[in-house]
Amino acid sequence: MPVAVGTGRWLMSGDLLHRFLFEELPVRGHLVRLDASWRAAVEHHAYPRAVSDALGEAMAAAALMAGALKFEGRLSLQVESPGPLKLLLAQCTHRHAVRGVARHEPAADLAEAGNLFASGRLAVTIEQPEGDRYQGMVPLTGAPLAASLEQYFERSEQLPSRLVLAATAERAAGLLLQRVAVGDEGARADADDAWLRIGLLAATLRPEELLEMPCRDLLGRLFPEDDIRLFEGTPVWFQCSCSRERVAGILQALGGDEVQALLAERGDVEVRCEFCNRAWRFDAVDVAGLFSTASPQQASPAIH
Ligand SMILES: [Zn+2]
Questions:
Q1: How far is the CA of 228 from the centre of ligand 1 (A)?
Q2: CA distances from 221 to 34, 153, 218, 226, 274 (A)
Q3: What is the distance in A from the centroid of ligand 1 to the CA of 262?
Q4: 198 C-alpha vs ligand 1 centroid, how far in Å?
Q5: Could you tell me which residues come within 8 angstroms of residue 297 by beta carbon, excluding any fewer than 6 positions away?
Q6: CATH 3.55.30.10 domain locations along the chain
Q7: Average pLDDT for residues 24-51, to the nearest whole number?
């Protein structure tokens, strides 16, 4: 079971994203565990268990994808569904700051529906600092989130991938394996066999192993015949990008009449961030300032 490791943070500590590669196969991977960053995302919400597990898996997946794809900016993994799980949004920046939010119907409807991914779509969006935006999409057909993401990688990135995800109230975790392209024909046939074998072995990973087992032991358990190089983990943390300017933009987009009505009703206008629960308050003077010089900005009224 030769799994080589560098020095440092390779043990069980959470909130780390690890890269690894197979020394003798064109396969690479990432392994992530979210602890404090995951709990920070859910501490202000009372999500039903099924929603919380789905969001945890989505956040682990977003972190894995941020590790695997080359970009600068922010990656969003978004599930939109006409079913009881209305929205699942998990985001990770290229610096591995994560956040996430879910919207859903009452718990009884969720329980009755059973499969939360029966219909709707899964979108992966990458927003770059210069304003470039890339989006890929796959329909949801009842497969687990991991399977839909494998389909996304196959279709949009031409990267055959295997993904295993798990989440509890305490921790979210994920394993991503990806096949790297090889040039010559003969090597490709061998790589096909190896990739099949790796996929079958990855499918034996149990959720409790993914959540709890030290990374080195986990890779050794799954792939006992392969030489794997496991790299030191890079930290993943919870960070929200909400700001007073963004909230001001949302209020401007709502329009003067609407905001004045809110002001008249309550004395001030409070907008609470869905991701981090921070409250942004605007009093009468602030509101007057917003609409005196403003040309309304384009902003999503709900999520910013
Ligand atoms: Zn926030």
A1: 39
A2: 21, 26, 5, 10, 39
A3: 21
A4: 40
A5: 249, 252, 253
A6: 3-238
A7: 95
Spell 62-92 as b/e; 16+ CB within 10 A means b.
bbbbbbbeebebbbbbbbbbebbbebbbbbb
> Ligand 1 centre and the CA of 245: distance in Å?
12
DSSP-derived letter for residue 55 is H
| Cα 100 to averaged position of ligand 1 atoms, centre (Å) | 10
pLDDT digits (tens, 9 = 90+) for 218-266: 999 999 999 999 999 999 999 999 999 999 999 999 999 999 999 999 8
Distance 157 CA to ligand 1 centre (A): 30
Q: List the CATH code of the domain at 3-238.
A: 3.55.30.10
**pLDDT given for residue 304 in this prediction:** 46
Which numeric CATH code is attached to 244-292? 3.90.1280.10
Amino acid symbol at 8: G
If one compares 184 and 134, the residue with the highest pLDDT of the two is 134
Ligand 1 centroid – CA 91 distance (Å): 12
| Ligand 1 midpoint to CA 167 (Å) | 22
Rounded-to-integer distance, Cα 218 and Cα 180, Å = 22
Task: Find the 280 Cα to ligand 1 centroid distance in Å.
Answer: 9
Q: In angstroms, how far is the first alpha carbon of the chain from the final one?
A: 47
Provide the whole-model pTM.
0.88
| Burial grade of 118 (CB within 10 A; 0-12, 13-18, 19 or more) | middle
Distance 27 CA to ligand 1 centre (A): 37
Specify the domain boundaries for CATH 3.90.1280.10 within the chain: 244-292
Query: What is the 88 CA–ligand 1 centroid distance (Å)?
Result: 16
DSSP H stretches of helix in the chain: 36-42, 49-68, 107-113, 145-156, 185-202, 207-212, 215-222, 244-254, 256-266, 284-292
